[in-house]
Design goal:
38% helix, alpha/beta, 315 residues, D-Maltodextrin-Binding Protein, domain 2
Length: 315
């Protein structure tokens, strides 16, 4: 279930992050303009537990409606990992990308991504990360994770890795040193699957993913309890390359601000993270607010990630 190549991929991801200090201007391509000959290249992070085709289909109605409204053309692809999406944006191979907040901040820091839009659900653009534990695990708080088996998602995931790890560190639990074992599963869905099957005692995932798993009967909520719930986190953002023309940026912002009223799309077709239904999108987004959210996982340094991955690969 948890293959060694997952860990190799994560180690490569850290290597790529370290190489980010090297200027990449020589690798950059000219950003596309949205014409039929040069459609805007959209790359999406892998959806939680979804397939590549499913993730693309979740977002196709949105981009089809924008295409009809603006005349802009799009080519939508799904990245194989969070780090692959960051690299696509930063080497000039993508014009628009969908990230988690932590992944977005990495790309923004490298100068290759600016905020485009956030989903709106129930009048807000936030979600929550949590640490969930089996009711028979003897875990009642974060400190009780010492000596226990813990599952986490992708190393670049905000709510299935960075926030849960920061929560543990803040409570005095060193994930690499104090836990009994770490499983890096690659996704929220796999974290919850491992928890459901009793392969681990606790795991980190978003509350949206937990709700989705409960609704799909993939996990029994009577056998799982919430150990921690994070402060509000901005929804996984859509981002655009800074080198897009100002006219194209304006078209995109206007389209996302009005996505719920564009012709050719129904309310049921407006989707967000993991294919969940959302009310719409807003392009009235703040880099300052996103940066402030990043403070939530400042404790999760590259060394912390490396130590966790080494522990995970040893099991």
């Amino acid at each position: 279930m948890y293959l060694k190549n997952i860990f190799r991929r994560h180690f490569v991801a850290l290597g790529l992050a370290a190489a980010a200090a090297i200027p990449m201007a020589s690798l950059a391509q000219v950003q596309h303009d949205g014409s039929a000959a040069k459609p805007l290249r959209v790359v999406l992070i892998p959806a939680d537990g979804g397939t590549e085709d499913g993730t693309r289909k979740d977002f196709q109605p949105i981009f089809s409606a924008i295409e009809k409204s603006t005349g802009l053309k799009f080519d939508i692809k799904v990245g194989q990992s969070y780090s692959a999406v960051i690299e696509a944006m930063c080497n000039g191979a993508a014009d628009i990308a969908w990230y988690g907040p932590a992944s977005y901040l990495q790309a923004h820091a490298r100068g290759c991504a600016d905020l485009l839009a956030l989903a709106i659900r129930h009048g807000d653009s936030v979600y929550y990360s949590g640490i969930f534990a089996r009711t028979d695990s003897g875990i009642n708080n974060v400190k009780d994770l010492k000596g226990k088996r813990v599952a986490l998602g992708d190393v670049n995931s905000t709510s299935s890795f960075n926030i849960p790890v920061a929560t543990m560190i803040s409570a005095g639990v060193d994930p690499a040193r104090d836990t009994g074992a770490i499983n890096l599963t690659g996704s929220h869905a796999n974290v919850l699957k491992a928890l459901s099957e009793g392969l681990v005692d606790a795991g980190g995932a978003s509350f949206d993913s937990f709700e989705k798993a409960v609704n799909a009967k993939a996990i029994d909520p009577s056998k799982v309890k919430v150990i921690s719930k994070s402060a509000p986190i901005p929804y996984p953002p859509l981002a655009m390359h800074p080198k897009l023309s100002e006219a194209t940026k304006t078209q995109l912002r206007d389209a996302f601000n009005n996505i719920a009223t564009l012709p050719g799309i129904t309310k049921d077709q407006i989707r967000g993270y993991g294919g969940g239904k959302v009310d719409g999108y807003t392009a009235k987004v703040s880099e300052t607010d996103m940066a402030a959210a990043g403070k939530m996982f400042d404790l999760v340094t590259d060394q912390v990630k490396t130590d966790i991955m080494k522990k995970a690969s040893a099991h």
